[in-house]
Amino acid sequence: MGPENFAADSLREVVEAVARRAGVRAEDAAVLADCLIYAELSGISTHGVSRFGIYIERIKRGLIDPTGQPQVVREATAVAVVDANGCLGQVAGAFAMRKAMESARRHGIGAATVKHSQHFGTAGYYCKLATDEDLIGISLTNSEPAMAPWGSYQAYLGTNPIALGCPTGSEFPIIIDLATSNVARGNVIAAARRGEPIPEGWALDPAGKPTTDAEAGLAGSVLPLGGVKGYALALLVDLLSGVLSGAGFGAGVGSMYKDLTRPADVGHFFAAIDPAAFMPIEQFRERTEALIAEIHGKPPAPGFDAVNVPGEIEFKRRSMRAVEGIPLTADVVSALRNLADEAGIDWPQPLKEDS
Amino acid sequence: MGPENFAADSLREVVEAVARRAGVRAEDAAVLADCLIYAELSGISTHGVSRFGIYIERIKRGLIDPTGQPQVVREATAVAVVDANGCLGQVAGAFAMRKAMESARRHGIGAATVKHSQHFGTAGYYCKLATDEDLIGISLTNSEPAMAPWGSYQAYLGTNPIALGCPTGSEFPIIIDLATSNVARGNVIAAARRGEPIPEGWALDPAGKPTTDAEAGLAGSVLPLGGVKGYALALLVDLLSGVLSGAGFGAGVGSMYKDLTRPADVGHFFAAIDPAAFMPIEQFRERTEALIAEIHGKPPAPGFDAVNVPGEIEFKRRSMRAVEGIPLTADVVSALRNLADEAGIDWPQPLKEDS
Questions:
Q1: What pTM was computed for the model?
Q2: Beta bridge partners of A203
Q3: Do A287 and B245 touch (CB under 8 A)?
Q4: Is the CB of A270 inside 8 Å of chain B's CB atoms?
């Protein structure tokens, strides 16, 4: 059976209702749902509702505190240290990014770190919070060990993503969001779930040998982006989001799926920059619009129809899926529907069948 | 003839004296020399004294103002916009990083952009200025078009490096410094200068075909780090250092070697973060030391003797070369010696011959 399409609002309601039944406050459930549905609308399905099940599982086991509230525990003029107090990563992330945004509006730039947090979903979501208010947003997070330091084969660093959002004079913001591995680990997880092999160059098995077995790749390590440079970038992210925040770092970050005995202690780093502190905002809009127009004007290489800017395809997809709905594969539907059934929540009708 | 080794101080004196004769103020000549000799000591020879000749050439042609002074033209609490006024990139870069560092000490974080600047040498140098004072430093710069947006083959973005320095509890700072291309363009320039071919995967010719001809690669484009991700990272750098600063961006950045008719209008972005605003500095030192020890403790993969942290090899090399001298190849010696001769500066004796 092919994917079924669901209205974004229907899925949003299911996620919110299930989260509330699990003890999450209504306003926090709304933030969580907004982040997951943003990912689905954007086509970043590796960070969408397929992650919801493990969040609920960890809440049930006491590893995520559904009523936990993030709190500023240390502050200077333009920076804040946030303790997530074990709350959902999305709740801590949105809170901390808004702190950084406030500071950027007042001081030109601001940053906030987060400790004692969880998987926060797609990093670009927090950048979008900033671009929605004409600010540049930077979002970094560490994650469970998945990648070896260059020169070793034993997983230590996460696939630690780097994300930056930039408001523009065009109809869409630029949203850069990339894992520092050759491919996001979510793709390996998805392949393992479907029982499919992975391409060469994605992962090593636990003994350090290249593998096309998704399960072996998850047990071993994924390869860093471009070799030693990806290692350096993943380390950069862990220095800011793990070491600087006071969270776990390196192997100190717990596995979301494999370790159901302790909180993950994930760390994040957020920064926001106000372009209006650097030049009149209208001038910044013109410059970003010119940049995008120049990139669009470059001749496409063979095999390409157009030259895109990061965030552009996701923007178009969001517009399209707001109308046509979000396609979910059968395994994702089944898992989400089970959560809804357990919580006594009605399951929505699909919009239409997709081939 | 193999490389000859020269004492760092001898080379520093030559660079300073030649720069002063070209009209550079004594204190600015010292900054320039410090940056170039730092690169040579660290083994980053692509960004060392081999670049000095084109700086002097551009000064002679009026494209770099040897007496130009960087100036803050716009400011908010924690950010500054610096106009380099056409001065040397190193002078503008050190000035702006020190602005960001001042702000970090007072407010936890600070940033400074630079417009109307030049090639500023190795990005890591400015991060080292920060780590020398127990601050985290971030240094970004755009550069002349060398890399195509993903989906095109026409050069538009530079190989825009990302650098971050982090003070540690170990004897060396972590210095991450990487071009967002598969390889730094300096390596292609060096191969072209030596008349040698380049490996596959480094560059495309002007028609978009893969090439091993270094000159064709310089005329065409170099490939981004890991494909579309390197494109996104290069764009991230240009957004902050070019678009946000008010400098040239994309194809608006002039070629240092090929365009001797106009100033390059390079843009930079610097940020500094004070770890002491986030936790007691002693705790930060302990955490970074633990991180490094854990990475060192990972088992080496076949073909590796040890697992290193970025900046570690360069630190060891600086210690070694401070004693044994800096090895310069015959072509670099010849070019630098010509500059010294023209300026009437004595050329130093090599320390010893290296095989």
A1: 0.96
A2: A211, A222
A3: no
A4: no
